[in-house]
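Internal ticket #5521
Category: modeling
Description: The requester needs a full-assembly model to guide mutagenesis choices. All entity lines are attached below as received. Residue total reported by intake: 1093.
Assigned to: D.W.
Attached entities:
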Amino acid sequence: MNATVLIADDEPNIVVSLEFMMKREGHRVLVARDGREALALIRSEKPSLVLLDATMPELSGFDVCEAVRADPGIATTRILMLTAKGRETDVARGLGAGADAYVTKPFATRELLERVREMLT
Amino acid sequence: MSAPLILGLSFGYLLLLFAVAAIAERRAAAGRSLIDNGLVYGLSLGVYCTAWTYFGSVGQAAKSGVWFLPTYLGPMLAMLLAGVVVLRMIRIARTYRITSIADFIASRYGKSPLLAALVTLITVVGILPYIALQLEAVSTGYALMTAAPAGEAAPAYGATAWWRDTALYVALALAAFTILFGTRHLDTAERHEGMVAAIAFESVVKLAAFLAVGVFVTWGLFAGPADIWARAQQVPELRDLGRLGAGSGAGGFAHAQWFAMILLATLSVLLLPRQFQMMVVECVDERHLKRAAWVFPAYLFLINLFVLPIAIGGELYFGAAPVNADTFVLLLPLAEGARALALLVYVGGLSAATAMLIVETVAVSTMVCNDLVMPALFRWRGFGARAGGELTGLLLNIRRVSIVAILLLGYVYFRVAGGAHELVSIGLISFAAVAQFAPALLGGMYWKGGTRLGALGGLTGGFVVWAYTLMLPSFARSGWISADFVAHGPWRLDLLAPEALFGVAGLDNITHALFWSLLVNIGLYVGLSLWRAPGARETSQALLFVDIMKRHHDGGEAPVFWRGRARIADLRALSVRVLGTERGGVLFAGGAEVAAGGALADARLVDRVERRLAGAVGSASARVLVASVVEEEALGLDDVIAILHEATELRAANEKLKSLDQLKDDFISSVTHELRTPLTSIRALSELMLDTPDMDDAQRDAFLRIVVAESERLSRLVNQVLDMAKLESGQAEWQNSDVDLRALIVSSIGAMGALFAERGTEVVADLPASVPPVRADADRLTQVLLNLLSNAAKFVPEGRGRIDVTLTVGARHLEVRVRDNGPGVPPADRAHVFDRFRQGGDALTRPSGTGLGLPISRRIVNHLGGEMWLEPDAGGGACFGFRLPLPAAPEAAEAGRTEQ
Amino acid sequence: MNRKRNTRLALVPCVAAVLLLNFPLILVWDRDVTVAGLPLLPVALFGIWAVLIALVALIGEARPVRRRPDGG
């Protein structure tokens, strides 16, 4: 099961861990450092799944999510949002923005992998 | 046309109005208000256009050209100030549940019943001619429509016996109609959803009808406006209608008259009872004002567009025939045999008159009931506040009787004085009467010094002068008193001649009356207000009124100027009596059980009850009622000031707490966010290493390095957060000694030497040979220097970075600057560099930052009596500087401290 | 303060209107001239009027309606 996964996070060390996990699963990995770059990559590479950090410079994860859902060409892209825990406003915003699943930071790697597998089947 | 047709049409139209109102009320009950938007609100203000506009403007234009315009330009000026004056009126009325202009003025000056009664009296007397005018217009319209051959002169006034007079039946029909509209139920906010919808509908009808006849005359009878004007040039009497000098009003003093007309209209559109009702009392949402402020003037603009063409066209059409220009709009279609149009125009005129009559009588009946009848009843012992029985029904009945009485009085005036003047001059008499409210009302909204005595004096004086200079001469013209009185004054004292007081001749009568009445009014208002200091209640009400915008802006609650003992049970019984079981009960949260005990009400509850009662019976009566069931302490002026002071202090304290709370929340939220990021990496990488036993060594090594680095970041963050907390709470320990700043800089640069060398950054220090010592904690100061240096090191380009450190000795300070050749601080971020957790650059370039370095540094410098800043323009890179006071100049240190 | 300034700004069009619609400035239009066959004075008065309406509309409708004048 090989898929293209886009990791969008501005924290390089978090990207390192996510990238390792996705590669070990056998996926092709793309990395974006901010929201703008993420959106551009989603448009050009059409990844199957996006691991999207909620708080990024330039364009937040919520904004990216809304933009993806509003663009018919990429609207069906599956999005897993990484949000901060305990911020009710974030969860509410995320639901409104239209992500498929949520995982709060700091995340358990096994739980994250399970969600990714569910989403890619 | 046949009488049954016209009568049927008239009643059919009234039924339609009623249907509109019924639909609106049903929609409102279902929560989908028809009138809850700016457009309908703006249209409902069109009630300003009465039969005077509809018939009279043409009459006036035929006589004097553009002189009909000031009446409609005035409202334009008023609407330009809508956001300032009207908004204030709406907020005051809304906050204190004020339902009439009498209540507004009385409430401002200490809820004075006497003042309320006086304003009501002036209103009734002043407005009767205006009501008569509408009745006259309707009956004239009816007479014209039913007269056999079109174009014949209108029947003479008063020629018919009263029992055959249409105006009487119009008055009675409208009374019934208004009662159905305006007094269906007692609303504590005095809002009439159905009535407003019907009035807005009427505005559309009269505008459509007037535009229709305008188009008919301009393009049906003539070939456009230019054609009308070209033909008018041939007629000597019409030639000058395009000029200011046209008609009788002009002369040497024409500019004064023009100004007076505009002023009069500006004030009237704010102060006429029906305008106050529509604009202030019936306003659903103050935000609608923004749209209404242009919709209403645009409405006036449209309805006036065809006045001149119709006027001149009518004059040309009828030529020398003796036709009253006030009736052109009806006679032109009739003469041409355009029956359908004539019927439409008749309905338009009917709508103009009925709209005014309905709203005016509803507004005035509220005043009569609340400000004349109820206070008299309450004073009567058997009817006092402690008597039993609900008042709701009684209140409604009083209003119903008032409505009938007002309309009948209007009819009587019409029978007695009607026909003596053209429509316009009757209307202007009423305008001048309500203009008397301006000083007390407008002054009271902006000037805290205005007093009850001043308002009473001003209103009385203005009203007396108005009656003397306008009312009496109008009686004389009706033949009630001798015309000689007008020409030469009483006892042949020429100086007292009503239309030329003290020899001021040459002005038209309206300008003359307006000048003298407002002069006396304002003079007495200001003079008497300054002469005697206001009482406690006047002062407290003045504060509540004048500061309304400020309070709204601050979001604070108004102080309650009340002290005493009140039993909840008594207040509850009173509210139920006045407002009915349902409405009265909801004010009391605990229900009957709580109220049944001897529980006492606090000042805020007493205030709330009084305001609610004010909505039903007026503020003056509500005051009397509440005072009768509670034990009050009489407040002195000192008490008022003390209460105000308390309220202000309380508000300030609350605001401070709130902002501290917000600050704390922000801080915690930022700290948790900053902690979460390294934690996420550490946890994820550790779990991965644990779950991947076969991970190759290089990978494991790299992961471990990250874990270590992120752990360091975490501990640094924790340290700094603690540091910050200590500095902020003032718990940090300071070991001050004489410090050599130069030596400190040299050692700090040395400490970071390895880092600079690694990144290929050149550090240039420009330091004097020696500097005087400063009093400081050496470790803290080193912390500041290291912070600035590492901050600069972070942003300089790899390999060719350059950092300049300079130290200069001023007269009272030592100044240190750290400049780098990095990208500099973007203008948008400059204001926030010293905020906590505000980090520059993106995540890649700030792995070691915590976002607390600069804020901590600034706090340290501030604590040492200095200041830290970001240089406004550093020419490319960023330059941070700070200054520390030299001990030789202690006052400078003081100055530095107070600047914090 | 922002609010005070706004109040003062709101006064500007009103003062301008008072000046434009009164003596002596309306004398400018009071002459025997026709515009497209119509007398100058009424045309000018209606014109000024229309401009004022447009101005109020522009000011009122441009800014989004906010509950608090300068709230966060």
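Resolution: model delivered.
Comment from assignee: The mean pLDDT of chain C is 74.
Ticket closed.
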